[in-house]
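Give me structure tokens for this 280-residue protein.
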Amino acid sequence: MTPRPFVKMHGLRNHFVIFDRRQDRRAFRRQDIVRICDVQIGVGGEQLLTIEPPSVAGAMAGMRIFNIDGREVSACGNATRCVAHLLMQEAGAVEMVLETGGGMLRCRRTGPLEVSVELGPIGQDWRAFPLSHAVDMDDLPVESGPLRHGMGLWIGNPHAVFFVDDLDAVDLARDAAPIHDNPLFPEGVNVGVAQMADAQTIRLKVWERPGIATQACGTGACVAAYAARLKGLSDSERFTVHLPAGPLSITLRGDMAEMAGPVAYCCRGEVEAEEVFAFD
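Here you go.
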């Protein structure tokens, strides 16, 4: 057994198990990631994150993101805030650039336990998702219960955003899960269900890949605000997006979104894995 130190953090109850690979280059098997994220037998988390040496000049570090099924994804807004906070605290910095699969992300400390991240660009290229075939991204040809006329948006990860009149009447497991599982999305999709409270306030729930109802989704909040503007539901550049665990502040600048929100520590510890090996 080989112990590996970790930090567990959360951003609005979106929980992450974070490992530093800048010096210790060992990595985990896919089944180790699944076990560590399993709340019944492991540390428990919605994603496993690794801090990596940067490969691009100007970045303080890199970050890789793994879902609870062990698959790697490119972007997570709440995860970015947590890792950026750790790195800025370590370096005594108030700003930094983090290298991710979704691009180079500028991060800034906006409070003792609050971080803002510039995410984007937000796009609608159906091949980025990927989709099984080309469709109208402004009016996705999928529906489930009250979820109709969804919009497809990419922000380093894929989202389908649906606006409804009554968010409380939506059951994510009943209504959003069939969208996630639709053959149009061969690798799944994050399904956001939004309700406009007013021109600058959005209520949002997200059924997240690979199939869980999350307490908060940073990239989902960004694309919900962007979709509200595209659909003509608001002409504001600033939004407060209320998720089940609390609010995020979103500022839109063209196709870029700045997301600001809290981070929090859960615990530190070690895990043991029977075998580790380097990533390909």
